[in-house]
Design brief:
The chain is α+β, with helices and mostly antiparallel strands. It is built from 9 helices and 10 strands. The relative contact order is 0.08.
């Protein structure tokens, strides 16, 4: 779990590990928000089709809500008999034996007295397990295993949150620097424009030809200032996939990453048509994951992102780097998936195909193709 630095991937890994480790039929992990719902809710043991049939994310009620206010486990022979049980949607699987364990803030010191921390430790999330395979209920041993897993999960989740926050701050700082640099450049242009305009005004009567030359310079400086102002608007405004489309969104993100990292990062698009929203979202997320891997793990000096249309009205995304590369089989055996499983899942979910080509010393190429609508 600690090898992963994307919060969503950490949550998915915790949930799958808990279900497998304790032999449960179903597992879920909920991270609460401040509005009575869950900011994130990850499930394992339920197919995508079943999950869509269940409907919207659960709200904080019933046993789910009760767990958010506990710092210890809840173990039930039948969750439906719990006083706090509030039912579930029609398509929801039937649950019986239940074990819930809070994931408590890893920075909290259990030896601190109540006077030092009146509110108690923060519950980062809760792991829910249901239906012990082979029948029967969850045991004391299961509870202890889940407690150990939750402790490791707290460290991994805190680490992932801090990493994502640091990336946000890095990008925010870089945007501020870009804005400052462009502001200085535009201010200089406007100052020169003002002086040139004043000179032209004084020359109109006594030297019309010189005045015309000065006015031409005013026009040139004004055009340069407009271009730089346009650049700051385009570069600093976060591109929205729904509003700007996939190519513009990728181009914007690559520009920011190129400024924030030492590696040379380039983007090119060729004959890309508008795709269904789900396909564009999947391509964007795969590109982000591949870029993250290249910049964090490969030591690459150059990363290239290309997006090209296909004759079948689909698209091919390609992210390549000249980094150190790796042996995909060795990475898989070591349990370090670098998000490859989630990338393949995203591709498959929209009818696409993802391939990876890498070997030690030869860089890495991640390619994803989606069919036409």
């Amino acid at each position: 779990m600690s090898r992963h630095l994307e919060v969503r991937e950490v949550l998915r890994r915790i949930t799958a590990s808990a279900r497998r480790l304790l032999g449960a039929e179903y597992a879920a992990l909920g991270v609460p928000d401040d509005h009575g719902g869950f900011a994130q809710f990850v499930v394992d043991g339920v197919t995508d089709e079943q999950w869509r049939a269940i409907g919207p994310l659960p709200r904080q009620h019933g046993v789910l809500a009760a767990m958010l206010h506990e710092t210890g486990p809840i173990r039930l022979d039948d969750v439906r008999r719990a006083p706090a049980f509030g039912g579930w949607p029609e398509a929801h699987p039937q649950l019986g034996a239940f074990l819930g364990m809070p994931i408590v803030d890893a920075d909290h010191d259990e030896d601190e007295g109540e006077d030092e921390d009146e509110d108690g430790p923060e519950v980062l999330g809760v792991i829910y397990l249901a239906n012990k395979r082979g029948g029967g209920g969850f045991t004391d041993h299961d509870e202890e295993l889940l407690r150990i897993l939750a402790a490791h999960a707290a460290l991994a989740l805190t680490n992932a949150r801090l990493y994502e926050r640091s990336r946000e701050l890095t990008l925010a700082g870089e945007r501020a620097r870009i804005a400052h640099d462009l502001h200085d450049a535009v201010s200089q242009k406007l100052f020169s424009l003002r002086l040139t305009a004043k000179a032209a005004a004084k020359l109109v009567d006594r030297d019309p030809a010189r005045a015309r030359a000065e006015l031409a310079e005013v026009a040139r400086l004004a055009a340069e200032a407009a271009d730089e102002l346009r650049a700051v608007v385009v570069e600093l405004r976060p591109a929205a996939l729904e509003e700007d489309g996939l190519s513009a969104t990728l181009a914007s993100q690559v520009q920011v990453l190129d400024r924030a990292h030492n590696a040379d990062i380039a983007f090119a698009a060729d004959r890309v048509r508008a795709l269904p929203q789900a396909q564009e979202a999947a391509l964007l997320r795969v590109a982000q994951e591949a870029l993250h891997n290249a910049l964090r793990h490969s030591g690459a000096g150059r990363v290239t992102v290309t997006l090209a249309g296909t004759p079948e009205r689909g698209a091919v995304l390609r992210v390549s780097d000249n980094g150190r590369g790796f042996d995909p089989g060795a990475v898989r055996r070591a349990g370090r998936h670098l998000g490859l499983a989630s990338m393949r899942d995203r591709a498959a979910a929209v009818g696409g195909r993802l391939t990876l080509d890498s070997s030690p010393g030869a860089g890495t190429i991640v390619e994803m193709e989606v069919p036409g609508a």
